[in-house]
Design goal:
The chain has helices spanning 27-79, 83-140. By secondary structure, the protein is an all-alpha fold. The chain has a single domain, classed as Orthogonal Bundle (Helix Hairpins), CATH 1.10.287. The longest helix has 58 residues, at 83-140. The chain is rod-shaped and about 90 Å long.
């Protein structure tokens, strides 16, 4: 399979605005501001995708474990000699299944929370930085407050 490349990577979407002139607006500073915003969105998206990949990998492992455990439970059920042993193996399987499900849910919740936190940290850092950028835009235009 051929490597996927971004066909727009070589193009600078903001270059067209470089010659655009508006009184009182430093277009270079404004373009840099929006370029930083897009970069932050890209990084946040990468963090979110990384988190989703971790969740998908964990869900795959959970499914594999569930299938393996169901196979073992079936073997134990048919290997049991008495009805009492069959019931005991099924009760044990159910108990283990509930404990495993609770543990798995807790792990998945942690993975989702970590992904959300990483994504939010990237966006929050850009938001804080953007306040300074906006101040500089106004200072560059002689509107410092």
């Amino acid at each position: 399979m051929a490597a996927k490349t971004n066909p727009f990577a070589a193009a600078d979407a903001f270059k067209a605005f470089g010659d655009f002139k508006m009184p009182g607006v430093n277009m270079d500073v404004l373009v840099a501001y929006h370029r930083k915003n897009l970069d932050a969105l890209s990084k946040a998206n990468q963090a979110a995708v990384k988190g989703l990949q971790a969740v998908a990998e964990r869900q795959s492992a959970i499914l594999k474990g569930a299938v393996d455990n169901a196979g073992k439970a079936t073997e134990a059920f048919f290997a049991a000699k008495s009805a009492e042993e069959k019931v005991r193996s099924q009760v044990e399987f159910a108990k283990d299944g509930v404990m495993t499900a609770m543990n798995d849910a807790q792990q998945l919740t942690g993975l989702v929370a970590n992904a959300a936190q990483e994504t939010a940290e990237v966006l929050n850092a850009r938001l804080v930085e953007s306040f300074e950028d906006v101040r500089q835009i106004f200072q560059a235009n002689g509107h410092a407050h």
